[in-house]
C-alpha cells in the first residue's frame, strides 16, 4: 500500500500547478454558473414586474378615458337646466303659444289697457337669438368641459398609478430607492377637493364664454329675420360665422385658463362652495398638494398643446353638429345609428356614403325647432356622440397620455 501512496504523492507533486489551475477553473465556472442563474432569475423577475406595470398602466389609462366620458355626461344635465333658465327659452315658447290662442282684436285691446307687452315679432327675434346662442355655447361648453375633466382625471390617475407601482415594488423587494413621500400619492380629501374645482367652470366660468357667444350671435343674426328663407347651407354659414367671431376672442391660452380656474384669492371660497366644508376660520384652506395639482393643471391648460386640442375638438363638434342639422333638414339623411370609426365632415369626399348637404328652404322660424333638436344631441346624458368624437381625436389622446405619464423622475 505504501507504493500506492508514494505514487499518488509523486503525481500530485509533479502536477501541482496543473491541478491548481484546473481547480481554479472549476471553482470559477461554478461561481459563474450560480451568478448567471441568479442574474437570470433577477432578470425574469424584473421583466415580470415591468410587464405587470405596463399592463397596469395601460388598463388604468384606458379606464381613465372611460371615466372622463362618464363624468362629463353626468355633469351635463345640471348645466343644461342652467343654460335653459339663463336664456329663458321655455318662457319665450310659452308667450308665443299664448299669443296664438288670443284673437288679434283681443290682443289689441289688451295692449291698450294693460302695460306694454312684447310684440310677436320681438318674441320671435329673441327666440331666434336664444336658440343659436344655446346651440353654439353648448358646443364650446362640452368641448371645454371634456378636455378639462380629462386633464383632472389623468392627473389624479397618474398619482393612483404611482401608488400601485409603489405598493407592488414594496411587496416584491421590501425596500425602495425613491422618495417615499412623493411616491405615496395624494390623500382622498386632496383628490376630492381637486376634482371639485370643476364647480367653478360649471357655475361661473362658462358665463364668460356665454357673453362672447351672445355678442357673436347678435352680430351675425342682426340682419336675419325669423321670416327669412333659410336652408342647410345658410344655417351652417350662420353657425360658422358665429364660431369665427367667438373663437377669435376665446381661443387664447390665458383666456381659457381664466374660464376654467378661479383667481388664486378666490380659491378658498370656490372650495367652500364646491365641497361644503368649513375650516376653523370659516373657509377651507388650499393645501400645498392641492395647490401643486391646480398649478400643474393650469400649466397644461395654458399650453399650446391644450389650445390645439381645443381647436381640434371644436372642429369635430361643429362638423358633427352640421351632420345632425343636415339630418334634421333632409329626411333622407339618417344619423340615428352610431357608426364606428372617425365621423365624417359635411361634404367630405372621402366618405362616399355622406349625402350632399342640401335641403328644402324654409322660414328661419320653422328651422329653430330643428336646431333645438340638434342641441339635444349635444347635451345628451346617455349616449353622447359629441363627447365620443372629441375623445378619439389623436391630439386629445396624445395630450391625455402626456398628462397621465408625466410623473417626476425619482432620484
Helix fraction by DSSP (H/I, runs of at least 4): over 70%
How many separate structural domains?
1
Tell me, rounded to a whole number, the average pLDDT.
80
Q: Strand fraction band?
A: under 5%
**How many beta strands in the DSSP annotation?**
2
Structural class: mainly alpha
Count of DSSP H/I helices = 16
Shape: elongated
Radius of gyration: 33 Å
SSE sequence, one letter per element: HHHHHHHHEHHHHHEHHH
Uncertain ranges: 174-183, 337-357
Strand order of the largest sheet: 1-2
Description:
- This protein is mostly helical and 411 residues long.
- The protein has one domain.
- The protein is 74% helix and 1% strand.
- The chain has 16 helices and 2 strands.
- The protein has a two-stranded antiparallel sheet with strand order 1-2.
- Helix 5 (120-173) runs antiparallel to helix 8, helix 7 packs parallel to helix 12 and helix 13 (304-329) packs antiparallel against helix 15.
- The longest helix is centred in the first third of the chain and has 72 residues, at 16-87.
Which features characterize this protein?
single chain; 411 residues; two-stranded antiparallel sheet; 2 strands
Short synopsis of the structure:
By secondary structure, the protein is mostly helical. The protein has helices spanning 2-14, 16-87, 89-101, 104-113, 120-173, 180-183, 188-195, 198-220, 232-250, 253-260, 267-275, 288-301, 304-329, 364-378, 385-391, 394-404; strands spanning 229-230, 362-363.
